[in-house]
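Page 47, continued from p. 46.
Same chain as before, 165 aa.
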Amino acid sequence: MSKSQSALVLIRQIIRATDLHDKQLSRATGLTLPQLLTLQTLQEGGSMTIGKLARELNLAQATVTSLLDRLEKKQLVERQRDSQDKRKVWACLSEAGRQLLLSAPTSLHDLFIDKFENMEQWEQSMVITALERVAGILNALDIDAAPVLDIGDLARSSGEREKSS
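Result:
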């Protein structure tokens, strides 16, 4: 196998692993990775405003509002208006959300972070440099992306954009 074929196989393996873990997580919890990360962020940080939650997740406020709408329908989060400033809305984890997190499997996202952070600094830098090079080869450096290992939402988002075009 040529080096270019080996590289393509590795890229495909990463894409497939991400997709398989995404589906496994969805089957186990009924949630997408961004929804699960939203619950985890609320568990770790406690109640927070939509703006702060958006910053913590590195997502747009409109995206977080949409995530919270779906999570609220499932009764996994609650929203409360600020008693002092009615324009402010606080999001907090419900008891059902806490219980779901206790039984949720570890996401590929979390597994990657754990393993990556245990690497030596030089090794982390090499991985980042190699990934930047691959992203450049694939003309992907200018594509906006959150630091989330998830394919499902990306596929749905591009499909929704195509329908609305």
